[in-house]
Design the sequence.
């Protein structure tokens, strides 16, 4: 049975005082440890190594473990690129928090050498994630924290130099970080004022931990007659429709272009279900089938029989016009001319230069119209439920003879299907 340590005596002998709540004590094995008195207990940090004393896969820190992996990859180049998964980045973020908690305590006890070391460790961790994270959101997760850490690192180094009375070096350091200059007026510097100004410059940076936002799950899942869609913390369920199937297919293949004929084949393979498509009647299915009925060119707008009928009617109208003019009947003449003009417009639309027949739109054009209509209707439905995702699709989904989904390189969405 594991022995439980009773801390009541220690806590009673050390009442909580926010101004005097940090001690450096000797541990059971003779090493120094940091104790931090909290209102309801104690926090303990190792002075060196990982603050919680835990070893990771036989190494001192998570960062050391992944750095060893990177070094091995660079030696062998067994894979084309080394990447950190979101789970591995989350583990590194947790380690950054642990180191930052100790960093704040080290400033309290004025251990500038170790404070500089921990700030440098976190900055290396940020560099590692920014360079190797698989997900773009992970790569920028802690970047707003970087300026604060750089300032803390510079001030810790300056405080170490100040303790050595290396005032000129301190001046160069803080000038390089655009920090404090007023303490270095003409004459001998006041070391107490310099120290106070340096600590004041990082007071806001040492107030608390950075706000981490783990990547929210995004999914585009078919569940029976519905699609479950999650994006940026919002969830909706939409009735199945062919346009959603097209969207899902494009999302599965970001960056690739597909001809509308290929998407149309997939539309026709979708089983009929009581869905938004069914609610609109069978004309959608018939329209899709018509659009896919061959990929050859269209047929002439007017066949030979229709052109013969128009020719016969024009001959009759010319005779009627002569009679109307002969009998001085302007009303009848006007009606005849209007009908002749209407026929002329029909023939102009059906017959091109040199008497060549104009043709109806090709199957590819009908397929483009059918697929574009389905996709835009699906995007509209998604946008009504999750406006942010609707805007994302409008910006990233391309329709036409070739359709594609182009993900944002700065904010890659990892879809779950």
Sequence:
């Amino acid at each position: 049975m594991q022995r439980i340590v009773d801390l009541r005596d220690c806590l009673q002998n050390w009442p909580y005082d926010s101004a005097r709540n940090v001690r450096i004590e000797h541990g059971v094995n003779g090493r120094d440890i940091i104790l931090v008195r909290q209102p309801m207990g104690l926090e303990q940090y190792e002075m060196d190594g990982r603050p919680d004393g835990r070893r990771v896969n036989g190494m001192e820190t998570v960062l050391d473990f992944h750095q060893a992996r990177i070094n091995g990859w660079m030696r062998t180049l067994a894979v084309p690129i080394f990447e950190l998964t979101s789970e591995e980045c989350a583990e590194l973020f947790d380690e950054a928090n642990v180191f930052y908690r100790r960093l704040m305590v080290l400033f309290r006890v004025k251990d500038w050498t170790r404070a500089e070391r921990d700030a440098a460790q976190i900055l290396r961790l940020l560099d590692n994630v920014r360079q190797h994270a698989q997900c773009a959101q992970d790569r920028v997760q802690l970047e707003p924290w970087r300026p604060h850490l750089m300032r803390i690192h510079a001030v810790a180094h300056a405080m170490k130099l100040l303790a050595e009375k290396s005032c000129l070096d301190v001046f160069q350091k803080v000038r390089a970080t655009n920090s404090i200059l007023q303490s270095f007026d003409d004459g001998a510097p006041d070391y107490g004022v310099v120290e106070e100004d340096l600590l004041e410059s990082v007071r806001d940076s040492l107030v608390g931990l950075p706000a981490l936002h783990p990547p929210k799950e995004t999914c585009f899942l078919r569940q029976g007659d519905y699609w479950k869609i999650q994006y940026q913390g919002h969830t909706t369920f939409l009735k199945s429709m062919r346009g959603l199937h097209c969207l899902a297919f494009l999302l599965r293949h970001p960056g690739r272009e597909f001809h509308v004929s290929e998407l149309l084949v997939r539309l026709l393979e979708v089983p009929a279900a009581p869905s938004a498509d069914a609610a609109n009647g069978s004309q959608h299915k018939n329209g899709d089938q018509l659009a896919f009925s061959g990929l050859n060119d269209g047929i002439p707008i007017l066949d030979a029989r229709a052109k013969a009928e128009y020719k016969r009617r024009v001959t009759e109208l010319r005779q009627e016009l002569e009679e109307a003019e002969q009998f001085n009947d302007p009303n009848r003449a006007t009606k005849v001319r209007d009908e002749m003009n209407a026929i002329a417009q029909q023939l102009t639309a059906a017959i091109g230069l040199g008497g060549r027949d104009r043709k109806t739109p090709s199957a590819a054009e009908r397929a483009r119209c059918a697929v574009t209509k389905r996709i835009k209707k699906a995007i509209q439905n998604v946008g009504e439920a999750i406006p942010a995702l609707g805007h994302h699709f409008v910006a990233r989904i391309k329709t036409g003879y070739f359709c594609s989904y182009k993900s944002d390189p700065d904010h890659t969405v990892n879809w779950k299907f």
The domain at 218-297+363-416 is CATH 1.10.10 (Arc Repressor Mutant, subunit A).
